TrEMBL record:
It is a multi-pass membrane protein. It holds the Pfam family Plug. This is Iron complex outermembrane receptor protein. It comes from Rhodothalassium salexigens DSM 2132. Residues 71-169 form the TonB-dependent receptor plug domain. One of its GO terms (biological process) is siderophore transport. GO terms for molecular function: siderophore uptake transmembrane transporter activity; signaling receptor activity.
Amino acid sequence: MYSRPLAASALSLLSTPLLLSAPVLAQSPDPSAPTADRSAAAPADQMVEEIVVTGTLSRYGAAKAAVPIVEAVRSISIETEQQFRDKGALTLDDTLNYTAGVVGDTFGFSSRGDFPTVRGFDAAEYRDGLQVLFGSYNNTRSDVYFLDQVEVLKGPASVLYGKGTPGGIVNAISKLAGPDEENELLVDIGNRDRYQVSGDLNADLGNNLYARLVGIYRNSGSQVDFVHDDALIFMPSITYETARTSITAMAEVIDRDGDTAHQFLPLTGTGCVSDQVTVSPAAFCANATGQRIEDDTYLGDPGFNRYDTNSTMVSLLGHHDITDWVTLEGVARYKKGRSDYRQAWIGFTGGPRIDAQGNGARTFYVSDSESEQAAVDVRARWQFETGPLRHELFTGIAYQHVQTDNDTAIQRGVGVLNAYRPVYGNVPADLLDPAALADGPEQTAQDLGLYVNNQISLGRWRANLGLRYDDTETRTVDATDARTEQDDSAASFSAGLLYKFDFGLSPYASFAESFNPVIGTDGLTAEPLKPREGRQWEVGLKYQPPGTPTFITVALFDIKESNLPNPSSLIDQPDSQQEGDGRVRGVEIEALTRWRDWSFEANYSYLDTENADGVDFDSVPSNQASAWVQYAPSAGLLDGFRVGGGLRYQGENRSTAVVGGVPAAEIVTDGVVLGDILVGYRYRQWDVTLNMRNVTDKSYYGTCLARGDCFPGERRTIVARLGYHF
C-alpha cells in the first residue's frame, strides 16, 4: 500500500495552457478605478500586454496574486476546462498528462484516487486555495466536470500554503455562480459500459444574486473486471456580486460507489514476462514460466471488495474592495468525508508472490476511515507606491484543523488464489463483522500560518519577496487512549527577480523554501523528528512576442530536501537520524501558439533525481514530452467543426530496493508513447464530440515496484458526448 495535474478565440488561446487562470494573467485595470489615469501612467510594454492577453482574474488561484504570467518569478502551469475537455480527460490525473514536469498517472490506471507528482515529489491537492485531501484513502475523489481549471504551482510553496513537499501543489478551481455563465446538458456514452448524464444550470435571480447547480450521475465499468466507477455528485452555489463585493456560498455532495483498479499484480506474471520491463536480480523472476497476467485481471473478491466514499463540503469565498487600492478576500471551508474500503490481494512475502503455477496466498484488508476539516485563509491586499517603486502587497492568516480516524482489520495467508485463472470465494466471515475492526489511532492536526508577499515593480524590473511563519501541532490518540503530541514550527522564505525586455523576453531567477513535518521520535536522541526541509533555486526565460498569441517558457531548477532518514544506518539500528538528503535537478519547456484556425502546444521536461540512498526516485521518469495540435475553422463550410490530436511520452522509470544503504534489486519500466484524438462539431446549441485516449489501445505498465508488483496503464478509452447549450 502506498500514499502518494469549445475552441478558444485568438485572444483567449494566448492564455492557455499556462495563462488562463486569473492569478497569472495580464492584469486589466480595476473597473472601479480611474481607468484613463492608470492607463496613461502605465509603461508602454504593460499597455501592449493588456491588449494582447486578457482573462478573468481569479482570487483563489495557486499564486494568490493577480500577477501577469510574464512577471511571475516562478513556474505555474494551467489547464483550462476547455483544454482538458478537448483532450478527453476523465480524472484529475488525466488533466495533468500534458504538463511539463508533472506525472498524472504515476501508478497507472486508478479508480481509487489521483496520485500526481510534480518535479519528482508527491503533490498535495488543493481546491480554491485550500487543501482537500489528507491521509490515505479517507477522502472522496474530485470529478473534473466540476472544475473550471487545474493549476500547478511548481517548486516549494510553503511561503504561500505552509507545510508541503518541495515539488509543488495542484490547485483546482471550482465552477461557481456568476453572471454570463452558459447552461448545458450533456449525455456521455463510452466503452466499458460508461454512461453519464451531467448538467450545469445557471440563473440570474436579480438584485445582484446568481445561482448555479452542477451535477452528474454516472454508471460505469472500468478496464478491470468487476471494478465499477459509479457516482452521484451535486454542487450548488449562490453568489452576491456588486462592483466592489462578491460573496459565494458553495456546497458539494459526493457519493461514489466503486472498487479499486489497483490489483497489485505480481511481478512474476507481469514485469518478468514483459519486454517493457527489466528486472534484476533474476531471482525475482524464479517462478516465471512465460504466462502473463492480463491487464484486466481482478485479484480481489467480488463478494468482498469495495471502495465506497462520500463527502460533504461547504465553502464560503468572498472579497470586498474597501477602496480602489485595498481589498479584503478569503476562503473558508468545512468538509467531512468517509470511506468504506475493502480489498483482497495476493500477499507480499519478501520473495516471489506466486509459484510457477500462479498460486499465491491471499491477504484481506478492511478500512473504515473518516476525515473532518475546518479551514480558513483570509488576506488583505494593498496597491501603493513608495517613490519610484510600485507595490502589490498582500498579507494573510491561514488556519486549518483536520481530524482523521482509520479503523482497520487485516488477515494474511487466508487461502490461495491463482493469478492466471482466479476463482473467487472463501472470504473470512469475521472480517465482514464491523466488530472485527481494530480501533485505529485518531489524529488531529492544527496548522496556523501568518504570511506576507510583496510584488515590487521598478520600470522593467519585477521583484517578489515572500515570508511565512507556521506553527503545526499534531496529536495522536491510540486505542488505549494513550496520547502523543508533536509541535513543529517553521519560517519559509521566497524571493525572485525578473526583467522585462521590450521585445517580449523576460529572464528571471528565484529561490523558495518548504517544510513538511515528520511524525515520530529520533531513535538516537529521543527528540521529536525534525521537519523535512526543501530549498529550490530556479532560473528561467519567458518569451511573449508583443502582439502575438505565442508564449514560451523555459525553467531550470535545483531542489534539495534535507532531514531525510540516514542512508548509512544499519538494519539493527534506528534509521531516523535524519542526516540524509534528496535532490532533483531539471529543466522544463512549455510552448503554445496559434496560427489562423490552428493551435499548437508542446511540452518537455527532464528530471535528474537522487534520494537519500543515492538512487533515482521510485517511479519518476527522467524524460517526458507531449504535443497537442487542434484545428477549429471559424468560417466557411467547416465552421463549428474541430479536430485535435496529441502525443504524450513518458520515459522509463525505476524502482530500487535498498537494504542497509546498498541497492539490492532494481526494476526498470520502459517508456511509452500514447496518442489521443478529438473530433467535434457544434451547430447552434448542439454539440457532438468524440474523444479517444490511448487510441491504439497500447498495453503498458505505468510502473513496476521492487516490492514485487506492476501497475497497468490506462487502456483505450472512448467517450461520445452529446451536449445542448442554452
